[in-house]
Amino acid sequence: MDADVFVVLAQVEVVSWVAGGGACVILMPTMRSDKPAEGAVESRAARHKVALMFRDEDLALLARPLYAFLTVAPRGERWPTPRPVWFEVADDGDLQMFSVPEAPKLDRLREHPRASVVVAAPSGEPEHWVAVEGSVTLHDQGGAELAARLAERYWDMNDPNHQRFLDEWRVRGVVRIVVHPEVVNRFSA
Fold it and tell me: What's the structural domain count of the chain?
């Protein structure tokens, strides 16, 4: 296996290789800070991170209104069970989704802040999927706005039932889940 190592703005080490028709990109943070970087540097770094992690065909797949399957650490002796979720790719390459505050997955994410997400082209199309693994952060802010954007993407908002769901999420609040990609696997036929 041949590996190429890149350093991105001295903050992220990227190891990538192609094996057996698939590909893998691993981002390993060399330092992590919750403080935002300076504007222009952050913007360049984010675009560079997205370009290194996701290919154009990955971003095209991820831009479609497809379900992502989110898998978190299981409870007790249970097996991990993926859950279908709405999602979007943020400008910095993170994957964002939301959940109602009482969802059990949030308790498990607080205990084990890691997750995987898989998005696949639907049946009848050439096989294409993207799988992301990474750390997770939970945010009380931005959830309602994210839910509104995703509702527009996934639903016909002229349907009054869909509008009622969105209104309920706005009133009771939703938690924004952000998956920070560290490993990306893909396949495209």
Answer: 1
Task: Give 114's strand partners.
Answer: 135
| Across 48-52, 133-137, 144-148, least confident range | 48-52
Q: Residue 155 domain-assigned?
A: yes
Q: How far is CA 30 from CA 7, 50, 129, in A?
A: 9, 17, 28
* Closest of 102, 116, 128, 98 to residue 181, by C-alpha: 116
DSSP symbols for 80-101: P--EEE--EE-TTS-EEEEE-T
Between β-strands 22-29 and 68-72, what pairing exists: parallel, antiparallel or unpaired? unpaired
Note the pLDDT tens digit of each residue in 107-134: 999 999 999 999 999 999 999 999 999 9
C-beta of residue 68 within 8 angstroms of C-beta of residue 99 = no
Establish if 14 belongs to a structural domain: no
Q: Is the pLDDT reported for residue 43 higher than 70? A: no
pTM: 0.76
CATH of the domain at 149: 2.30.110.10
